[in-house]
């Protein structure tokens, strides 16, 4: 479902209720920019160096859409079928700059971005520090003790005195009318009296004066259509009425706070749930999310890793998973020999291609009567049907990412592979990968061959060309005989496309 300001409360309450029981959550984002002129990503970048470059990007640009897909296995514990709740949030800040990169905006335009919905209906958001400041301002600690819309300030210095004759006359008439209302036994059941309609300067005077002369009354202001002009009311309430009013005011303030905090509430719920969070090539997604909903990105890469791992202790990047065992090769057929050559499973790391591979595998398994993973949409969450092709809409990409992970979840979450897969993320056009859950592996093991001039991206063909190559035997070492063939380590060739 699309989520805007109009249905945000409904969506966030649903997410908060569903998260504790979710098997995992998939996310995706669309941004207003992903690069900065002069900041060049190089092949030899270490993870720390690349972080500093990406940090600048995530700190400059904004989020357009945030997609969330919650996947639930059935209560029986079976993992063959998942139910997906999918949300496509439009996000637009109420304050601060909006920075855009031409190429990114053109890309989103070409993929059907609804700019009017983004600008007019986008859900606001703040980071953690801003949310705390808003709470302190909107929900003051003494709100329960002084439950008024605008508190009457208690003077710490001599009260205001009026000098203009017109102001003095207005004040005298208003206070006299208030005294008459209080003394009129025929109006004793009335609970509020309209004192005066005036500007901010005079309101300050009335708050001070009425607070001193009528301490049992509650004084509040209500805005008028005229800018800067409000009407002041005096309220005569018993204890029960005061308690009822205080509860309503508190609820109104909490609603105002929730509206201003906006998507930060969803981000906090995701973190508090401690569920596995999944993305596809998602380092940038986490950087943007941290920058906009948590706080400024740390200057230290190590500090950032600690902070993100604290917020999200289990994180998977499906783009990296498909390059690691046990996912990168086609599953062995039952009749195949144990040492049979393994075929690469994915020709491309693009999300659409990976999705297609798993769809085709699932369809083939069905035709043969084998069990396979299935995903069903929850009621009212069927915006994306089986034939959808809404790639680069954040909600759809989150759903597809979750669908892909659903086919890997049982193995990825197992105790043995979890430590070597959790927190690892792809670093584009680089020799290394990010590891947000531990130390980065920046050792160069093996041989790197940089090949230029290729016209295609058929990694399978390249692998076949190198199929007959074996690891060289160092000088002085006796070449193993066929009897020793079990001790020969085969060459593990990995093709990584840089450009």
UniProtKB/TrEMBL annotation:
Recorded GO MF terms: 3'-5'-RNA exonuclease activity; RNA binding
Superkingdom: Eukaryota
InterPro entries linked: CAF1_poly(A)_ribonucleases (IPR051181), RNase_CAF1 (IPR006941), RNaseH-like_sf (IPR012337), RNaseH_sf (IPR036397)
Alphabetical list of SUPFAM superfamilies matching this protein: Ribonuclease H-like
PANTHER family per UniProt: POLY A -SPECIFIC RIBONUCLEASE/TARGET OF EGR1, MEMBER 1, POLY(A)-SPECIFIC RIBONUCLEASE PNLDC1
Similarity field: Belongs to the CAF1 family.
Name under which the protein is recorded: Uncharacterized protein
């Amino acid at each position: 479902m699309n989520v805007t300001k109009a249905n945000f409360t409904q969506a966030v309450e649903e997410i908060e209720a569903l998260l504790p029981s979710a098997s995992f959550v998939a996310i995706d984002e669309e941004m207003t920019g992903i690069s900065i002129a002069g900041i060049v990503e190089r092949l030899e970048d270490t993870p720390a160096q690349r972080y500093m470059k990406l940090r600048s990007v995530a700190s400059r640009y904004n989020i357009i859409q945030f997609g969330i897909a919650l996947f639930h296995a059935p209560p029986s514990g079976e993992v063959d079928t998942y139910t997906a709740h999918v949300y496509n949030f439009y996000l637009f800040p109420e304050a601060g700059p909006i920075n855009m990169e031409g190429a990114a905006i053109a890309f989103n335009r070409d993929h059907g971005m609804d700019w009017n919905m983004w600008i007019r209906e986008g859900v606001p958001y703040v980071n953690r520090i801003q949310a705390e400041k808003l709470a302190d301002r909107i929900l003051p600690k003494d709100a329960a003790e002084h439950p008024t819309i605008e508190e009457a300030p208690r003077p710490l210095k001599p009260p205001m005195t009026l000098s203009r004759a017109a102001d003095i006359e207005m004040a005298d008439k208003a206070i006299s009318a208030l005294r008459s209302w209080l003394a009129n036994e025929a109006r004793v059941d009335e609970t509020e009296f309209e004192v005066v309609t005036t500007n901010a300067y005079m309101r300050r005077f009335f708050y001070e004066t009425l607070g001193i002369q009528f301490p049992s009354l509650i004084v509040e202001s209500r805005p008028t259509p005229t800018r800067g002009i409000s009407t002041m009311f005096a309220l005569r309430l018993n204890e029960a009425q005061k308690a009822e009013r205080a509860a309503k005011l508190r609820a109104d303030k909490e609603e105002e706070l929730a509206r201003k905090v906006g998507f930060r509430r969803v981000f906090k719920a995701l973190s508090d749930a401690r569920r596995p969070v999944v993305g596809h090539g998602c380092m940038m997604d986490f950087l943007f999310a941290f920058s906009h909903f948590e706080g400024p990105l740390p200057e230290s890469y190590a500090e950032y890793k600690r902070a993100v791992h604290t917020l999200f202790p289990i994180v998977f990047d499906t783009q990296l998973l498909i390059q690691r065992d046990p996912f990168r090769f086609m599953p062995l057929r039952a009749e195949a020999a144990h040492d049979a050559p393994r075929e690469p499973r994915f020709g491309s790391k693009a999300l659409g291609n990976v999705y297609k591979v798993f769809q085709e595998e699932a369809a083939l398994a069905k035709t043969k009567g084998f069990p396979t993973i299935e995903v069903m949409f929850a009621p009212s969450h069927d915006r994306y049907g089986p034939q959808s092709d809404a790639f680069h809409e954040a909600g759809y990409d989150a759903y597809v990412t979750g669908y892909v992970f659903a086919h890997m979840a049982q193995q990825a979450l197992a105790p043995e592979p979890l430590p070597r897969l959790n927190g690892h993320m792809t670093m584009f056009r680089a020799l290394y990968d990010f590891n947000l859950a531990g130390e980065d592996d920046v050792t160069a093991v093996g041989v790197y061959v940089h090949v230029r001039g290729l016209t295609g991206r058929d990694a399978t063909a390249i692998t076949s060309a190198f199929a007959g190559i074996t690891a060289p035997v160092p000088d002085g070492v006796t070449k193993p005989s066929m009897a020793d063939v079990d001790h020969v380590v085969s060459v593990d060739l990995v093709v990584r496309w840089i450009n």
